[in-house]
Amino acid sequence: MTPALLEKYAAVLEWGLETARGKQYKPYETVLIRYDVDALPLTEALWRRLISRKLNVTARLLTPPVMEKDFYALSDARQRGFVAAGEREFYENLNGNIYLGAPSSLTHLKEIDPKRIAEVARSRKFVRDIMEAREASGKFGWTLCTLATEELAKRAGCSMTEYEKQIIRACFLDVADPAARWKEIHGAAMDIKDWLGSLKIRSVRIETANMDLEINIGEKRRFLGVSGHNVPSFEIFTSPDWRGARGIWYADQPSYRSGNLVEGVKLEFTAGRAKVLGAHKGAEFTRQMLAMDPGACRIGEFSLTDKRFSRIDRFMADTLFDENYGGKNGNSHIAVGNAYLDTYSGKQSALDKAAKTALGYNESALHWDLVNTEPKTVTARLVSGASMVIYDNGQFAR
């Protein structure tokens, strides 16, 4: 990317961070930038913007692929559970977190036992819990993005130039003021979220040629999306009551997870728990992921993307883009694993463990998005007993 495009990207991320928190950052609040080495030029542009605002900024280089593989291969259980002194204190005082992804490998962990990866995920779950609690209190916001790499382009089956063009179009970096365009998308999404909330939906049924899944939305839920958290983001989502999921889910879009490629995975939900019926690739790996902990086989998110918003029209080998695919048919995805507690419509500080359990909010160290891009119809059953189509032909019926 040119310096001018990097400055635009940094401006959009700044908008995303502030929009995600819902209020402006004050001087000397603390922000963490986590970045892959190939994202250094964007890190530098973002660093300048945040330092100029008198924020206290910490930059952390993410572990390179060779070192990450060696850690998982050579460490013992005690090392995989290690948490550095001061880590908890650091996150308990953090106000913002920005992740800049530019992976140089998607498959370096392919030969690693998934149980080892799960051990680290469980040991680091406290970080997610801290950030969720701080976000609920309005003290914290986060956002993230991806930059093109040769590895991503290779896995997506395109050239670097094609991959970069997709990022530029998806994030509106080809317009004079991308942040202003994102504000427009944010407003349009807000109208859809308000409409969905007004319907008082009891459950939804998602039907395609290859799947038929019913999901209970649950009590005191709200729909979120286009909140600044992800750049780009076009999805409208909620975290449903995991206990009500029943039927078949099919992910026609491939997914890279912990170095493994999963394609065509089909899950069957019974009483809220999923089992793997099969996959074109990665069935056994998927079974291992669903066994990570008790909540890994349960639904943590249900999402829909409107093709009128998203300009993403190809597989990108990156969940950030793939879960926001627009194309001809839009997309729907579920995530197995952890729920988003900010989808609770009540006072989030009241969501203690007992309340989360009673409302059917799932908890897990896993959160794995599985995307379907087939033509689909989504029908809502309302609390009143009436039914109505809320999504068809790749867009909301709003």
What does this structure look like?
The protein is of the alpha+beta class. The protein contains 13 helices and 18 strands. Helix 1 packs across helix 2. It has two domains: 3-179, Thermophilic metalloprotease-like (3-Layer(aba) Sandwich); 192-396, no CATH class. It has helices spanning 3-21, 40-52, 65-74, 77-80, 87-92, 114-123, 125-136, 150-156, 160-170, 178-198, 283-290, 319-322, 353-359, and strands spanning 30-35, 56-61, 96-101, 141-146, 201-207, 212-216, 235-238, 246-251, 255-257, 260-262, 265-270, 273-278, 299-305, 331-337, 367-372, 377-382, 387-392, 395-396. The strands form four sheets. Strands 12-11-8-6-5-16-17-18 form an eight-stranded antiparallel sheet, covered by helices on one side. The protein has a four-stranded parallel sheet with strand order 2-1-3-4, with helices on both faces. Strands 7-13-14-15 form a four-stranded antiparallel sheet.
Provide a compact summary of the structure.
The chain has 398 residues and is α+β, with helices and mostly antiparallel strands. It is built from 13 helices and 18 strands.
Task: Provide the fold topology.
Elements lengths: L2 H19 L8 E6 L4 H13 L3 E6 L3 H10 L2 H4 L6 H6 L3 E6 L12 H10 L1 H12 L4 E6 L3 H7 L3 H11 L7 H21 L2 E7 L4 E5 L18 E4 L7 E6 L3 E3 L2 E3 L2 E6 L2 E6 L4 H8 L8 E7 L13 H4 L8 E7 L15 H7 L7 E6 L4 E6 L4 E6 L2 E2 L2
Parallel strand pairs: 1-2, 1-3, 3-4
Antiparallel strand pairs: 5-6, 5-16, 6-8, 7-13, 8-11, 9-10, 11-12, 13-14, 14-15, 16-17, 17-18
Structural category is alpha+beta
CA-CA gap between termini: 37 Å
> What's the number of structural domains?
2
Largest sheet: 8 strands, antiparallel
How would you write the strand order of the largest sheet? 12-11-8-6-5-16-17-18
Q: Estimate the global geometry from the Cα principal axes.
A: globular
Unreliable stretches covering 5 or more consecutive residues = none
- Helix count equals 13
Q: Give the proportion of residues in helices.
A: 25-40%
Q: What radius of gyration results from the CA coordinates? A: 20 Å
Task: Tell me the number of strands.
Answer: 18
